[in-house]
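This part of the workshop introduces the protein records we will be handling. A record pairs a protein's sequence with a compact description of its fold. As an example, a complete record with its sequence and its structure tokens follows.

_____
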Amino acid sequence: MSLTNTIASDLDLNQASRRHLLWIGATAGLELGMAYTWIANRTNVVRACSPQAAIETDSLSGGPLPSIAILAADWPGRWALRDAVLLSKRWPLLRIVSVASSLVDGRRRSGPVLPGIEEVSWYDFPSRFECWCKDIDAGRPSLLGLPTTARREERLLESIPMVVPAIGRDGNTATGSALTVSLVASQAVDLDGLTDLLTLAGWHITRSGCGQPELDEPADVLVWDIGSIQSSQLARLRMLSANRPKLAIVLLESFPRGDSTLMALRSGATAVLGRPFMLESLRGTFLRLEREGRTGWQIGKRTDRQSSTRADLGPCPLAR
């Protein structure tokens, strides 16, 4: 078994050295391969081919409890309830998450198969993992603790208090993130919903519009509800990235696939999330930008937009 020792820079050293993630299953294939590569550059990872092999791994025997166990599902029915039970018997307090490839995605949207196991799509996993780490370190509850029997609507409602900044008695949103956001969607109804959701969550919207994004977007992050990734949109993405190389671009796509996601990342996108998206996924993407210092602002130290200089975004971790 291999142990990847890459510690995230935003974590306290002692916390980071104690945390390790257990990845069970395949890392081959474009989609799960990208998810694994990202997580291996984020924290310590112990790999195992099966739950039984994980229990027998020398790296885990007698050691601390893994922070999270990942069941990598490369095809429907890859894991059964007995696999989760086996892990729970060995580590009763272990958080278990299933990361699903596109082959599992259609079934995933109809509901979870393993009772008590949160199932996350491969493209949302990196962003949601950011939130889980942040909440675990702060001792806060997270969506990782919600029962998987909860409906999508209930999860959306539950996610709002976890990402909304503190709101004062006068109803004004207190200072949360200094991050500014531009929004673009193909349809007006999607744009209205996206604007209301992000405004409610406390982010400052500098510009919103339908169609394609402008080449001079005046924000730190562009959230583009792209629907489906087409060649014309990739061309626009490359133009936007060339004109604003320091702009973080987050795409929302209905059914992200490995090949189209990789093309978008190579064309200048920072992240690709599925739609409908969870606020936790978007929050995690913003947390990653903060951690990597990929914009010219710091928490609590907002610089003037006209005179600030920002570090290059560099390649997205998913593309490494």
